[in-house]
Amino acid sequence: MKVLVTGTAGFIGSHVAHRLLDRGDEVIGVDNLNDYYEVSLKEARLARLTPKSGFTDVRLDIADREGMEALFAKHKPDRVVHLAAQAGVRYSLENPHAYVDANLVGHMNILEGCRHHQVEHLVYASSSSVYGANESMPFSVHDNVDHPLSLYAATKKANELMSHTYSSLYGLPTTGLRFFTVYGPWGRPDMALFIFTRKILAGEPIDVFNYGKHKRDFTYVDDIVEGVIRTLDHVATANDQWSGMQPDPGTGKAPYRIYNIGSNNPVELSRYIEILEECLGRKAERNLLPMQPGDVPATYADVQALIDDVGYKPSTTVEEGIAKFVDWYRDYYKV
Q: What 8-state DSSP symbol labels residue 214?
């Protein structure tokens, strides 16, 4: 297949592009290499992709309407994996307009490109953050998600609604994937594991929010990628049993699906830090702090729908995943 992958200089996008190329697909990679975090890391991720046969590197902002129209017209992808977005919950408190441009305008441009160029299937990144104030555990795609606690979460919820509209109006098969705290090699420097590793190795104290009592469904990147690829290959279909009298948020009369991708195994932040300490051979100096605005105390993914539909099963323990991240980090930064 010819697959358009947005965010190929990003953490998950680069891993997904690798997997697609390794199995023989052609990948049109789109990224604008913005400076939300160190551009050199993004360039290093791309440098691993560009030598591969079948990869086309396109430097473009997905919010560029004319540019995206020209991209779809030129390359005519069979399917699309849309992972580019302005990430981060806390940053959305500082720079909300960045989320409107990338996550709303950008998603709109992707939908329009898919609509006008007969794309077979759009798979896009949503987020566990859409569950917001929901306290019913584990989080299910059949739950209501109308109470987001950050603008980032609200834009991801909006992406799901926009996609449903296009599935309903134009018959475009769309699948939204709610990622749960992804970590692993080539990860994002703004995420906890990266920050903790850097500071512990430097002998600096780490900020531990909610006094370390947060629980997160930490999910290793290889397990995420496996779910993305399996979902891409399993084109969304309509739910024949869907009823407007009892509307199911996770499916629809249109070819529209929502899935959670998580490890299905929440781990307390304090335990996560302990495992990291063991892998680094050093103890962390912990600066215990209250919960940050926009954060939620726990996430826990019900992944049964994904297991039933595509046979997804996460297989990497948090101990294995953190060890692999530390090995990569020491090698990449030579520490």
A: -
Q: Number of C-alpha atoms within 13 angstroms, CB side, residue 277?
A: 14
Burial of 270 per CB tally in 10 Å (0-12, 13-18, 19+): middle
Nearest residue to 253 via CA among 315, 186, 164, 326: 164
pTM (two decimals): 0.95
DSSP lists the bridge partners of residue 224 as none
Closest C-alpha to 221, from 116, 86, 322, 109: 322
pLDDT in tens, 217-243: 999 999 999 999 999 999 999 999 999
Active site residues: 152
DSSP 230-295: HHHHS-----TT--SSS--TT--SSSEEEEEES-S--EEHHHHHHHHHHHHT----EEEEPPPTT-
